[in-house]
Amino acid sequence: MSTPQFNLASAARAEMIHEGFDPDFPPGTEEQLAAIKSRPPLQPPAGVRDLRNLLWSSIDNDTSRDLDQVEFAERIPSGIKVLVGIADVDSAVPKDSPIDQHAASQTITVYTTVRTFPMIPEVLSTDLTSLEENEDRAAIVIEFVVKADGSFTSPDVYRALIRNRAQLAYNATGAWLEGRAQAPPKVAASADLQAQLKLQDEAATALRAERHRLGALNFDRVETIAIVTDGQVHGIQAARKTRANDLIEDFMIAANEVTATMLTGHAASMIRRVVKTPERWPRIVELAARYNEQLPEQPDSAALNAFLERRRAADPVHYPDISLAVVKLMGPGAYILQRPNDTSVGHFGLAVQDYTHSTAPNRRFSDLVTQRLLKGVWAKQAPYSDGELADIARNCTLKEDAARKVERTMMKRITAVALHDRIGQTFAGVITGVSDKGVFVRVFDPPAEGRVIRGEAGLDVGDQVRVTLLNTDPQRGFIDFGRA
To answer: How far is it, in rounded angstroms, from Cα 56 to Cα 305?
Structure first.
C-alpha cells in the first residue's frame, strides 16, 4: 500500500513541471472540443476509401485507451497483403489550433502509471480520435505486401474510413498465439478473427526474421510495471513481451519504413527518426571482448546482434544487463529534419535507412506532423517549411528525453512505495554496477534496482547475491539493500 506521507500523483505533476512540461491545456481548448463534438457523423468524402467492411482489429496494452492503429491482412498470390490503419488525428486537430499548439509544445504523452499526461485532451485521444471498437473513424492506411522471404513490396498510403471490429490486448492474445492459453473471448467467438490474427502473425514473423537477418538488434531488457488500483500501489512485476507485442512492433516498423519511403519518393522534406552509428563503438567492442567475442573495428549491426544472441543463449540471467549496457553505449534515438537531397542517416538499431514515426499520432507530435506531410504531398502543398520542421524535430527530441526522465523518476518512486512494506525481507539478485557512486543490485522478484549500502565490499558486476531490503525513500526514489 502507498505510504500515507507520499502522494504519487502530486509528485508526478511536480516532476512534469520540473522537466519543462505544462500539464494544463491552454485557453480555447474547450471551445475547440465543443466544435469537434458537434460535427456530423463521418461519411467518406471524395477520394477517401470506405474500408469499414474489413475485419480490422487492434492489439494494445491491457489498459490502453488511446488506440492509434488497427491491422488487417489477406493472402494474395504474391504474399500477404498487410493494411495498417492509423488514426487520422489531423482531421480533428487542425494545424495551429489551440490543441495543436499545446501538442507542438509538449510533443508526447507521458505515462507515469499513477497518472497519464496526454499530449492532446483525453476526450480526443481516448475517444473521438481513438480507433475505438465498433466506431467509424477516419484513418491513414499504410499498405504493403509481405513476401515469403520477409521482404515487402507494393507500398501504398491513402486515406480511408475504417471500423475496429475487435479491441484486443497483448497479454491474452499473445498467450493464445504462443499456445499457452485459450483464445480470449472475442477471438474464441470468431473463426474468421482467429484466422486473421494467425495470418498477421505469419506475416510479422517473416518481417522479423528478415530484419534480424539484415542486422536489426534484438534487445531483452527487464521492464517493470506497477499494480495500481485507485491510485494506490499494490506491487510491481516484470512486464512480459509476447508474440502479440512482436506482431504489432513488426507491422509498425514496416509501416514507418513505407511512410518514409513514400515521402522520399515525392521529394518531400520530413522528420526522420534516427539512431546514428554508435560513436562509442570501440567501447562496445571492449564489452564484447570481456566475453571472448571479437566485433569488427567498424560498426556492424549484424555482428553486434549475433554477439547479443550468443550471450542470450549462454547466460540469460545477465543478458538484460548486457542489453542495457549496449543500449546506453549506442545512444538515444533522435528526430531530425530530412530534406530531399540530404544523405540519409538511417536507424542503426533497426538496420534500416528510411525511417520516420507515423503510427502514434494520438501520443506523439512527430507522427501528427507526418500525417500532415502526407496530406501535403497529396495536395501538392507543403504544410511546414524546412525551418519549422527542424524546430519541431529538435523539440520532439528534447521532450522525449524529458519524458523518459519523468517516467524513470516516477518508476523509482513507485517501486520504493511498492517495496516499503517488505523492508527486512531477503531477495536474490545480480550486481549491475560498481562505481564511485556505489554498488548497485538488480533483484529478480519483484524486479527492482537499488544500492547495496552494507556488505558491498568485494562485490563486482555479474555477482549473484542475496540481499536484504533495508530502507526505501519514495521522495528520492532510493532503495537500499544490505548483503544477506
So the answer is: 34
Give the chain's length: 484
> Can you say whether the dihedral through the CA atoms of 112, 115, 119, 122 is positive or negative?
positive
Assigned CATH topology for domain 423-483: OB fold (Dihydrolipoamide Acetyltransferase, E2P) (2.40.50)
Q: Domain limits of the chain?
A: 8-274+348-416, 281-331, 423-483
- The band of 4, judged by pLDDT with boundaries at 50, 70 and 90, is very low
Residue 305: partners with Cβ closer than 8 Å, 6 or more residues away: 212, 215, 216, 217, 218
Strand ranges in 222-269 using DSSP code E only, listed in sequence order = 224-229, 232-238
| β-strand partners of 229 | 232
Q: Which amino acid is at 84?
A: V
The DSSP output letter for 169 is E
193 closest CA partner among 176, 210, 218:
176
Residues of the chain with pLDDT > 90, as a percent, come to 77
Amino acid at 156: D
pLDDT at 5 over 70: no
Least Cα distance to 367 among 273, 292, 461, 286 occurs for 273
